[in-house]
Amino acid sequence: MDEKEKELIAMILAGETEAFAELIFPYREKILTLAYRLTNNEQDALDIAQETFLRAFRYLRHYNFSYSFRHWLLQIAVNEAKNILRRRYRENKAKVNLLEIMRQGKENQPAANSSLKSKPELMTDLESYLKFLTLRERQVLVLRDLEGLSIKETASLLRCSSLSVRVNLSRARNKIRQLMERKKN
Amino acid sequence: MTCRRARKLMPLYASFDLKPHLEKKLEAHLATCSQCQQELDSLKRALASFKEMAQQKELQWPDLCWASLMEQIKQEKTKPVPLFVRNRRLALGFSLMILLLGIILINLPREKWKWFPLSSLTQKIKEMPAKEISPAFEEKATAEKTEAPSLSKEKSLPSEIPAPVKIKKKEAASFVASLNEKEKPLDAPPVEAPDKITINLFLPETGIQVIWILNKDFDWQGAIK
């Protein structure tokens, strides 16, 4: 671990909260981008990044110095992304149920239903590819290929086996290749 | 290795995530199979372009969001963390030391506890009742003593049974010594006979008093009526 980071953490723990901005500055774009890649939504990514830094500040006293600070931040961000996606899934499910109820009750008012539908967002290629992956495949691909973690690090961060990481990584890469070829054709 | 197996291993081989023995087998297959080699090239190209895409798109923090986050962090109440919480090894070592000290103290003999502040306290507690009760007992004893002669004059039965006589350590030791003397060998010089033993019988109803006199061998010596 970087000596400067250690000093900054010691300062924050001693009560100098201003040092936290300096500590997280090198990671602020990385965490935001990671959150965006995991969720494919800018607002969610901002929420995740904010919550990640807040949690890091709150639980800094429990930080284990034997791990790298980046690894710790990535772990918090991944967990937070998982929570947000779970919440979104529940909300969408509830929205669909509400929509069905409204359709049944107000069959003569189709205009009202159309207002509930979310507008299709303009997606870049990357987002459109990531959209076709499952959550685990996306997590593994983003952490291994885009964040550059090793298989072991990815496994420990996602709390799964190395074998599971390998299998999901293989699937995700195959899917990406197929999607790219399809797009070319 | 078959082409099907090679295709399965390719995604991991593309970024050197394959185990060495499988890597060698796949390389041997790729050297002979041009179709698989082409597939591997296309996979590598796809992954490279994917990574490029990822590098192009980097989100930037809106200034307002970052400022609000910093404001939130400032508002978070933080207390300075104690040294033991920061340094877990130190905390563990300290607790182990206390545990060891406790075990040693418990196993020490009682006599060596005198220096301990609590030992003097427990000693005081032990002594307290004796000091407090003894004067009351003394008063009772004096009252009984004063009453006792009057009872004897009236020739009535004593109301209370006298307390058993406590044998002191010294007396016990002398008694044991006397017993040992009795068990001396026959060659030892004869011991002088002790005083006579008297058994006093007093009947309060009739007022008759009889005293039997016996010697040390319980031989009858006479009686006084």
Account of the 3D structure:
The complex is a heterodimer of chains A (185) and B (225). Chain A is mainly alpha-helical and 185 residues long. Chain A has 2 domains: 1-88, RNA polymerase sigma factor, region 2, helix turn helix motif (Rna Polymerase Sigma Factor, Chain: A), CATH 1.10.1740; 122-185, Orthogonal Bundle (Arc Repressor Mutant, subunit A). Helix content of chain A is 76%, strand content 0%. The longest helix of chain A is centred in the middle third of the chain and has 37 residues, at 69-105. With 225 residues, chain B is mostly helical. Among the domains of chain B are: 3-56; 82-127; 194-225, no CATH class. Chain B contains 8 helices and 3 strands; from the N terminus they run H-H-H-H-H-H-H-H-E-E-E. Chain B has helices at 3-13, 20-32, 34-56, 63-75, 83-86, 88-107, 117-154, 169-182; strands at residues 197-203, 208-214, 220-224. Chain B has a 3-stranded antiparallel beta sheet with strand order 1-2-3, with no helix packed on it. Chain B is elongated. Chain B starts with a helix and ends with a strand. Mean pLDDT of chain B is 74; it is low at 151-156. Classes of the chains: A mainly alpha (185), B mainly alpha (225). At the A-B interface, helix 3, helix 4, helix 7, helix 8 and helix 10 of A face helix 1, helix 3 and helix 4 of B.
Attribute tags:
heterodimer; A: 185 residues; mainly alpha; Rna Polymerase Sigma Factor, Chain: A; Arc Repressor Mutant, subunit A; 2 domains; B: 225 residues; 3-stranded antiparallel beta sheet; 8 helices; elongated
SSE pattern of chain A, N- to C-terminal: HHHHHHHHHH
Any idea of the CATH class of the largest domain in chain A?
A: Mainly Alpha
Q: Assign the structural class of chain A, choosing from mainly alpha, mainly beta, alpha/beta, alpha+beta, or little secondary structure.
A: mainly alpha
Helix content of chain B: 55-70%
The biggest chain-chain interface is:
A-B, 41 and 35 residues
Average pLDDT of chain A, to the nearest integer?
80
Please estimate the helix content of chain A: over 70%
